[in-house]
């Protein structure tokens, strides 16, 4: 099996271990950073924690004690919160 110094692609033998691919599920801290980076929306980790208790936040999964968010769910939630683009502020 070729090693990296011989031009092998990192993770080729173990595609699941490829560190270049994005994580499919994000922790609360990572979800907060993702929303800021991808959508320009600052939602603190503590706010996501509160939304899990009172509702209104993105859907999440539990893995034992860990809370995980899917990227697609975060994207959908952010776009829903942003609403439709507006071209003026009048309410006519």
TrEMBL record:
Q: Show the segment(s) annotated as Disordered.
A: 1-27
Domain of life from the UniProt record: Bacteria
Specify the protein name: DNA-binding protein
**Origin organism lineage:** Bacteria, Pseudomonadati, Pseudomonadota, Alphaproteobacteria, Hyphomicrobiales
